[in-house]
Write a structure and sequence with these properties.
346 residues; alpha/beta; signal; ATPase-coupled transmembrane transporter activity; Putative aliphatic sulfonates-binding protein; Solute-binding_3/MltF_N; SsuA/THI5
Length: 346
Amino acid sequence: MRNELLNALVRIICNGFVRIFFSGSLLLVLYVESALAASPLPSVVRVDYADFNPLSFVLKKIGWLEKEFQADNVGVEWFYSSGSNLALEHLNSGTIDFASAAGLSSVLSRAKGNPIKAVYIFSHPEWLSLVVTRDSPITAVSDLKGKRIAATPGTDPWFFLLRALSEVGLHKSDVMLVPLPHSEGRAALEHHKVDAWAGGDPYSTSSQLESGSRVIYRNIAFNSNGFLNISESFAAQYPDAVLRVIKIYERVRRWAIRHPDELALIYADEAGLSLQVASVILSKVDFSRPVPGADDINGLKSAAPILLTEELVEKESDLNSVVERLVDPGFASKQVRAFCGKQMKQ
């Protein structure tokens, strides 16, 4: 009889403990899920738009980003970036949260100690060329020795020029580099204030079609891809915001591929270009493959040595490691898979 009472007492205590344990566990699970669902968002998302990023003009025009964050009372602010160099400066100073920049420009920024991440590819373009006036006697890169060449430091046209010179055995010390913003570089060339110009689109194509400027060198292999960059601190603090901005970028990218004519009209109107210029530029842009992959990483690693050759980074810089720390495909991969999943269900 005594043993039966003890056994009954043990069962009561154990059953009570189990109920308490599972009740507590359920509360813990609900708390964790609630915390994850309530991932913090910034009060405002600051995004750049740039002439060299056609998708950014569509994004700004259509207003999908504003609608994405409207229910969360998160504002969207737009900042114009005239070049990769300024976009990255604004990112590193905290002025913007999402910066459009050429891949090699991003590598340079990261190599100089700026903790940034390249998380999405908005284009695989051929946007660079070395340009001279129509009446120039210059016909090849080798003719540029001792000449005045306009270029924007820290941008893809600048690196394109350095790599083109290196290909024929020349260095930046063999020419007279004239640092000018893209638009001023075009004007300097057309007014014969420089002998050549390392031009990037839309300015290069505009100069060719509108002023008769002549290309002396093209090399699609020396063009960087267009990357969307964020700071590591923003990614850590607001991962949900990053995912949602990339989600809308991906929506715009897919729309652009399906609507090339509308894309050209919006790009021309918003960037202040003729429809002819906009159409020619877009014909040289590949909007596929938004997720940074092995080819993109290897391409940056192959291009990066010019930064060492021209002493733009410290001699001991491990640029392969820099590239690997820079490129982060995780955010884009997740959103592209989500879009593919939705399409399969439809």
